Amino acid sequence: MWCYFHFRNKAGFFVHQWDLRGYILADIGLIAFILGICYSLMMLMLKTAILIEWVRIFVPDRKRNIFYWASAMLIFINVGAYASAIFTTFAGCRPLEKVWHFWVPGVCIDRKNRDIVNAALNLMIDLFILVLPQKTIWRLQMTKRRKMAVSVVFSIGIL
User: Fold this and answer.
1) How far is CA 105 from CA 13, 23, 95, in A?
2) pTM, full prediction
3) What pLDDT, in 10s, does the model give residues 82-103?
4) How many other C-beta atoms are found inside a 10 Å radius of the C-beta of residue 75?
Protein backbone atom coordinates (compact mmCIF):
# COMPACT_ATOMS: atom_id res chain seq x y z
CA MET A 1 0.00 0.00 0.00
CA TRP A 2 2.89 2.33 0.72
CA CYS A 3 4.11 1.94 -2.87
CA TYR A 4 0.66 2.78 -4.21
CA PHE A 5 0.25 5.94 -2.13
CA HIS A 6 3.84 7.05 -2.69
CA PHE A 7 3.42 6.63 -6.45
CA ARG A 8 0.11 8.50 -6.38
CA ASN A 9 1.59 11.39 -4.41
CA LYS A 10 4.80 11.66 -6.47
CA ALA A 11 3.60 11.17 -10.03
CA GLY A 12 -0.12 10.60 -10.08
CA PHE A 13 -1.92 8.27 -12.41
CA PHE A 14 -2.47 8.65 -16.17
CA VAL A 15 0.50 11.03 -16.45
CA HIS A 16 2.77 10.63 -19.47
CA GLN A 17 6.41 9.84 -18.78
CA TRP A 18 7.65 12.89 -20.66
CA ASP A 19 5.60 15.12 -18.33
CA LEU A 20 7.58 13.97 -15.28
CA ARG A 21 10.78 15.42 -13.86
CA GLY A 22 13.91 13.28 -13.60
CA TYR A 23 13.91 13.01 -9.81
CA ILE A 24 10.31 11.72 -9.91
CA LEU A 25 11.33 9.08 -12.47
CA ALA A 26 14.04 7.91 -10.06
CA ASP A 27 11.45 7.60 -7.27
CA ILE A 28 9.10 5.69 -9.57
CA GLY A 29 11.96 3.38 -10.58
CA LEU A 30 12.69 2.64 -6.93
CA ILE A 31 9.00 1.94 -6.28
CA ALA A 32 8.88 -0.41 -9.29
CA PHE A 33 11.99 -2.20 -7.98
CA ILE A 34 10.43 -2.66 -4.52
CA LEU A 35 7.12 -3.81 -6.04
CA GLY A 36 8.93 -6.40 -8.18
CA ILE A 37 10.61 -7.87 -5.12
CA CYS A 38 7.37 -7.82 -3.10
CA TYR A 39 5.44 -9.46 -5.96
CA SER A 40 7.97 -12.27 -6.27
CA LEU A 41 8.00 -12.90 -2.52
CA MET A 42 4.20 -12.85 -2.37
CA MET A 43 3.77 -15.29 -5.28
CA LEU A 44 6.46 -17.60 -3.89
CA MET A 45 4.61 -17.86 -0.58
CA LEU A 46 1.07 -17.79 -1.99
CA LYS A 47 1.45 -20.54 -4.59
CA THR A 48 3.43 -22.69 -2.16
CA ALA A 49 0.69 -22.27 0.46
CA ILE A 50 -2.00 -23.22 -2.06
CA LEU A 51 -0.14 -26.37 -3.04
CA ILE A 52 0.51 -27.37 0.57
CA GLU A 53 -3.16 -26.85 1.38
CA TRP A 54 -4.22 -28.96 -1.61
CA VAL A 55 -1.92 -31.77 -0.49
CA ARG A 56 -3.66 -31.68 2.88
CA ILE A 57 -7.09 -31.76 1.18
CA PHE A 58 -6.46 -34.28 -1.60
CA VAL A 59 -3.97 -36.58 0.16
CA PRO A 60 -5.66 -36.97 3.57
CA ASP A 61 -4.03 -40.32 4.41
CA ARG A 62 -0.53 -38.89 3.78
CA LYS A 63 0.04 -41.51 1.11
CA ARG A 64 2.67 -40.33 -1.34
CA ASN A 65 0.70 -40.74 -4.54
CA ILE A 66 1.00 -38.97 -7.90
CA PHE A 67 -0.86 -35.90 -6.58
CA TYR A 68 1.63 -35.56 -3.73
CA TRP A 69 4.67 -35.84 -5.99
CA ALA A 70 3.21 -33.49 -8.61
CA SER A 71 2.53 -30.93 -5.89
CA ALA A 72 6.02 -31.36 -4.46
CA MET A 73 7.53 -30.86 -7.91
CA LEU A 74 5.41 -27.73 -8.47
CA ILE A 75 6.49 -26.35 -5.09
CA PHE A 76 10.12 -26.99 -6.02
CA ILE A 77 9.73 -25.31 -9.43
CA ASN A 78 7.78 -22.40 -7.90
CA VAL A 79 10.37 -21.70 -5.21
CA GLY A 80 13.18 -21.98 -7.74
CA ALA A 81 11.48 -19.72 -10.27
CA TYR A 82 10.66 -16.94 -7.83
CA ALA A 83 13.97 -17.21 -5.96
CA SER A 84 15.77 -16.83 -9.27
CA ALA A 85 13.50 -13.89 -10.16
CA ILE A 86 14.43 -12.18 -6.90
CA PHE A 87 18.11 -12.95 -7.42
CA THR A 88 18.14 -11.63 -11.00
CA THR A 89 16.26 -8.52 -9.86
CA PHE A 90 19.01 -7.77 -7.34
CA ALA A 91 21.88 -8.92 -9.55
CA GLY A 92 20.48 -7.38 -12.74
CA CYS A 93 22.44 -4.15 -12.51
CA ARG A 94 25.85 -3.28 -11.19
CA PRO A 95 25.74 -1.06 -9.20
CA LEU A 96 22.24 -1.83 -7.88
CA GLU A 97 21.41 1.89 -7.78
CA LYS A 98 21.43 1.90 -11.60
CA VAL A 99 18.02 0.16 -11.54
CA TRP A 100 16.26 3.37 -10.49
CA HIS A 101 18.98 5.97 -11.26
CA PHE A 102 19.42 5.26 -14.96
CA TRP A 103 22.12 7.93 -15.35
CA VAL A 104 24.53 6.21 -12.94
CA PRO A 105 27.41 4.56 -14.85
CA GLY A 106 27.23 0.79 -14.77
CA VAL A 107 25.88 -2.20 -16.64
CA CYS A 108 22.53 -4.05 -16.59
CA ILE A 109 21.36 -7.37 -18.01
CA ASP A 110 18.73 -7.51 -20.73
CA ARG A 111 15.52 -7.52 -18.68
CA LYS A 112 13.34 -8.52 -21.64
CA ASN A 113 14.71 -12.08 -21.76
CA ARG A 114 14.45 -12.43 -17.97
CA ASP A 115 10.85 -11.21 -18.01
CA ILE A 116 9.86 -13.57 -20.84
CA VAL A 117 11.31 -16.57 -18.98
CA ASN A 118 9.59 -15.49 -15.75
CA ALA A 119 6.26 -15.06 -17.54
CA ALA A 120 6.53 -18.48 -19.19
CA LEU A 121 7.36 -20.19 -15.88
CA ASN A 122 4.56 -18.28 -14.17
CA LEU A 123 2.03 -19.39 -16.80
CA MET A 124 3.23 -22.99 -16.65
CA ILE A 125 2.98 -23.12 -12.85
CA ASP A 126 -0.48 -21.51 -12.90
CA LEU A 127 -1.80 -23.96 -15.50
CA PHE A 128 -0.48 -26.97 -13.62
CA ILE A 129 -2.01 -25.65 -10.38
CA LEU A 130 -5.30 -25.26 -12.25
CA VAL A 131 -5.25 -28.78 -13.71
CA LEU A 132 -3.82 -30.63 -10.70
CA PRO A 133 -7.00 -31.17 -8.63
CA GLN A 134 -9.35 -31.71 -11.58
CA LYS A 135 -8.80 -35.47 -11.95
CA THR A 136 -9.49 -36.04 -8.27
CA ILE A 137 -12.57 -33.80 -8.33
CA TRP A 138 -14.11 -35.54 -11.34
CA ARG A 139 -13.63 -38.97 -9.71
CA LEU A 140 -15.70 -38.01 -6.67
CA GLN A 141 -19.00 -39.80 -6.12
CA MET A 142 -21.45 -36.96 -6.63
CA THR A 143 -23.64 -35.54 -9.36
CA LYS A 144 -22.10 -33.89 -12.39
CA ARG A 145 -23.58 -30.57 -11.34
CA ARG A 146 -21.86 -30.73 -7.95
CA LYS A 147 -18.60 -31.85 -9.55
CA MET A 148 -18.82 -28.85 -11.86
CA ALA A 149 -19.42 -26.54 -8.90
CA VAL A 150 -16.45 -27.95 -6.98
CA SER A 151 -14.29 -27.74 -10.09
CA VAL A 152 -15.24 -24.08 -10.55
CA VAL A 153 -14.40 -23.34 -6.92
CA PHE A 154 -10.93 -24.84 -7.34
CA SER A 155 -10.50 -23.08 -10.70
CA ILE A 156 -11.42 -19.62 -9.43
CA GLY A 157 -7.74 -18.85 -8.86
CA ILE A 158 -7.20 -18.61 -12.62
CA LEU A 159 -8.85 -15.20 -12.45
Assistant:
1) 30, 17, 8
2) 0.82
3) 999 999 999 888 998 888 888 8
4) 19
